[in-house]
Amino acid sequence: MDASRLRELTDWLIDGGRSATSPTRFMAECCERMVAAGLPLWRVGVFVRTLHPEIYGRNFIWKPGAEVEIGTVDYNILESPVFHNSPLIIVFRQGLEVRARVDDPASKRFPIIEDLRAEGVTDYVALPLPFIGGTVNASSWTTKQPGGFTEEQLAALRSLAKPLARVVEILSLNRMAASLLDTYVGNGAGERIMGGQIRRGHTETMNAAIWLSDLRGFTALSDRLPAETVVDILNQYFDCQVAAIKKHGGDVLKYMGDGLLAVFPIDEYVGDEKQVCSNVLEAAHESRTSVADMQYPIGDAVERFRFGVALHVGRILYGNIGGGNRLDFTCIGPAVNLAARLEKIASQTRRTIVASEGFAGICRGGWSDLGEFPVAGFAKAARVYGLADETSAA
């Protein structure tokens, strides 16, 4: 092995692997440097747990001459026989190194070893990557070298695992912060906060299509059903909207009880407001179908649901608002206020989807003029439009 290259690699890791511009590039360059230093690597995996409501962990797999593969596993992995019979579970739960030579009969207790034998692998070692916070993540290293890893090569891998763990922890924490921000404030807001827009008063104006919806009869529903059931219903109800909103370029900013506020940014320089509004309307159509199809069994009955959504377009103030060091990244402005009033009009007229004159004027076709309505807080009445394929029950 090349001792000088190993020292250079250690220094590169201690310095944070700065020449790598992304986690995948870091993984590739790290493994390539190891091979250049004399480590006969075939397949390398790094497995990191995440703090995410749906994803238990992420894995990065490197092989010589191939792109780094990135995968995710959900929480079902915890019940999987494959995971429970894997060497990695020992690393995760006990923080111990696991060695498994393919010619060692004791290695047969791990089903993965037979798969590796078929690839021509001769040796496997799983090493812990302990984080400063106390969690233990894992790495796996395989070789096709006859006889497996030498003791010198194993010692090199163990010594490199320590600085590797520090870099992986930093990358993991950065991704975790971004993931949590996306989860709780939305993608657009999360990017701005990570970019340094964190002080109270840091705001910007933007032109956007606005989506404001709520569940019909929610107050009565909350009164007659257990709180746990109501939460489950709300989660399913929001699922009916969020997937469509994100699919069509929207950013969910806030949940307010049964209410949902989302924005669809409009690029004023590109002039894409017609396309954006068309996307918003398509998302509304999809959400209407999903909510109508939603069923929730309660006892011998099956609960069905209706919702209403108001669509508007205008300028909003978007940024940090709050008191002291407790801030909320949200949007305000007359356009948001009007959308909230329109949503109430949707309820009054028993419509599912209503739009302002501005929105209907951009996204033409398929609208019925419902007339003018007085709007609390606004000097002028607002002309409201409903979809032509809906009939008012008012």
UniProtKB/TrEMBL annotation:
Pfam families: Guanylate_cyc. It is an enzyme of class 4 (lyase). Keywords: Lyase. Its EC number is 4.6.1.1. Residues 209-343 form the Guanylate cyclase domain. SMART domains: CYCc. Gene3D superfamilies: Nucleotide cyclase. GO terms for molecular function: adenylate cyclase activity. PANTHER family: ADENYLATE CYCLASE, TERMINAL-DIFFERENTIATION SPECIFIC-RELATED, BLR2264 PROTEIN. This is Adenylate cyclase. It comes from Bradyrhizobium algeriense.
